[in-house]
Write a structure and sequence with these properties.
Length: about 180
Amino acid sequence: MPPERAKPSRLYQRLVPLTLIPGALVVDKFCVRLFNRSLINRIYARASGMVERPCLMMTTLHWKTGLPRTVVLPYQRFGDQFVVIGSLAGRPNDPVWATNVRAHPTTWLRVDRAFFACKAHIAQGEERERLWKEISADGSYAHYAKTAHPRILPLVVHTPVDPAAQAKPEIDLAFD
């Protein structure tokens, strides 16, 4: 049974514009590294009445330059796989990190202070339908999917290449 949605908070709706300040992303990454909590995730979840999801830090290689790029994203875990949604708040284009994954499927995740080297892919067909049904069961992403239409929100599945090896990769030191 999916968790109940909370009533949207007007206070947090007023805080949403603050998340657009460039320094907000740096502060958010710092909070995730230090406390394993994302302030931006909390603001968006409470402002829209969505269920707050845990966050991970994903490092990808930029599709054009090959430089490491790190983003903080909410995720859902399915066994040993981590799934993130490229909603980009319902905008008409996919996020840059989804383009990065298409070009370079190797990713590095930091989840609750554990590090995983992963192979990532965009879920398609039956796999995507199964994952989407489970992730959107609480109605959290319905608004994003509707406003992004006709774009289909990409579901990126990360599978650790060696679940036993959880050494911190050097690439995670990038603070972009």
